[in-house]
Here is the input.
Amino acid sequence: MSTNKPLPSATHISAPYWKALQDKRISIPQCQDCGHWIFFPRRHCDKCWSQNLEWKEVKGSGTLYTYTIARIPTLPDFADEAPQKLAVIELDEGARINTTLIGVEESAIKVGMRVKPVFDKVSENGTVLLRFTAADNDLPSERDSTPAAQAAAAQAEAEAAAAAISKRQIRFDDEAAMKALVSEEYSPWSGQVVVDQELINDFARLSGDNYWIHTDAERAAKQSPFGGTIAQGALVQVLQSRLTIPLDFEVTGFNNMVNYGSDRLRFPSPVPAGSRIHARSRVKSVEKLAKGMQVTMEIVTHVVGSDRPSVINDLVILYM
Amino acid sequence: MGLKGNAAIVGAAQYKPEKYATAPQMFHLEQVADLAGKALADAGLKSSDIDGMVIHGPQFHEAQVFVPAMAAEYLGLSLNFAEVVDLGGCSSVAAVWRAAMAIEMGLCQAVLCVIPSRMAPFGPEEDPSWMMRAMRFGGHSTAFGAPEAEIDLPYGHMGQNTGYAMIAQRYAAKYGYDPVAMAKIAVDQRTNALANPDASFFGKPLSIEDVLNSKMVAEPLRVLEIVMPVAGGAAVIVASKEVAARAKNRGACITGFGEHLSFKSPTYAPEMTDTPIGPAAERAFKMAGIQRSDIQAAQIYDCYTITVLLTLEDAGFAPKGEGMRWVREHDLTYKGNFPMNTHGGQLSFGQSGTAGGMSQVIEAFHQISGRAGERQLKRCDTVFVSGTGGVMSEQGALILQGA
Here is the structure.
């Protein structure tokens, strides 16, 4: 699993902080000479310069010092958190921490509000970030927001939604009814798939598209303008098959359904390795041909949270 | 304490702001030589007069280290004083007072302060995407062991917009917030830009409604309250009294300065809404021995409207917490009762990287030397200039007075 979101690299100074977070505890250094709580972790006390420090556990209760709601992601990789609720928390001990708020409605965010910690697992290697929510919120104090966990939750949700829809049955040769399906509106979103490095590597072996920007994470971290590897456009296109889109209709009565190819295929924006993707669709046109009924479905795949599609595919299907 | 006012800005040059995509690409050494030559011609001095240099070091294209020596060699200068500044948007103000100090200490007689900011041409081995990568985290270090790489970036705290927005949000909670007053800062400055043919937004009027209807970037900051990055570059010549006497223009004497910094992220400020310009400006006014009411024009670093508001308050022009009312009650245009950012400010002039702050220094000099064209103030002998780097992290103040 890889993701292009920056992750913390613990140092010999900060390691106890990150280790404690993995154990769902908050531990920060306190000066044994002047009592000052030190954040971020340092070798010395930034008040009295003593090096006589000790790691001490704190509860993590505090107040919201300030915040902003970022309407444009601070980095494209954070689009799945949009709108980001960036915050500064002042712990009751006095130390301030840059973080994000979760599980709080925008209108409920107030400078000075009481907050409590949420331990948020963000990567398969166990990294836990310290997020905060309103003190009176009944949100669990732990969360798994690794891409795989989030995609699985979204997939389950989409499957439940699809199962709940009572599908209208439309005969493929009912020209008027079929033409009535044409719409400017997109369907609801599909479930989600994580496009991780393993999948990208598998596709590289299968297709031969092993260009370094897809497969060489080390070089891509240094040279790719996206800060890391990105998926092959063709991979993201074929993953449409794994994304169940909850449609409210079902075409019936045909003997054979043929995938005729694509009228338009575009890859307008990249999918960084580790991203979650989802798709939605609309019926773009319906045409009665001598052979049968030809339906053009526009299927758009986005990185979760991103306004710009990563794949636009005008898929042509012939019902006979 | 401090300066006696025996050093003055006597010449200046700056590239007209241009879009990065269409601006000429020049080596940074080439820009330094070009800007130095133009500033020297503006002053009416000879290259042999220059014996000091203050140059912006970070992101210098042709060298990471030994920048002053390389530039002196390239220009053909013989220096008694060489200094690199690394104070972001505060670098211009910082360069000018360092030059003045070196002159008053007798180290040198004329100092070139220069910040190149156009892009350099890419070599065959250079990858043009370096710029995108360099900008990816907007001034945040990604180095192993850099505290911000470890504790800010993973949460999406990066760049400047959200930092300034969080300062504004805290201000709003403490003192209240009036989006119309904030928009007025941008609009009054635009009025000034309409009288400055070099400004990026010359000929493009702006209304309060335009600002209030512009896209929200990070609450409460909208896109028209945020500077537009442009390619540019600037230089000024600071000279001793003796050299200034031979110069063409009325000099702008540096009679006071101050500088203050103690954090990179305002999260760690004792109080985020009390900004470093407070102590910096206080020192500058004391040194110059003048009052706030003596100021005839203020050229205030304006990466965002909130930067202007907090500088007006903390530098002592407006009462703390009442800046918005104060802005509503004052006309900030060159025709008004508190002429501010008379060139349009960077919001309307364009922000040419670190050289952006030099636009404020140069406008002060142009006003004092009576060369500000249509926007020239009737009387302009005493000007306040501020510089701001990072997220209100490092701030500096200058008092410039006509010779």
Notes: Chain A touches chain B through 43 residues (CB under 8 Å). The first helix of chain A runs from residue 15 to 22. The mean pLDDT of chain A is 93.
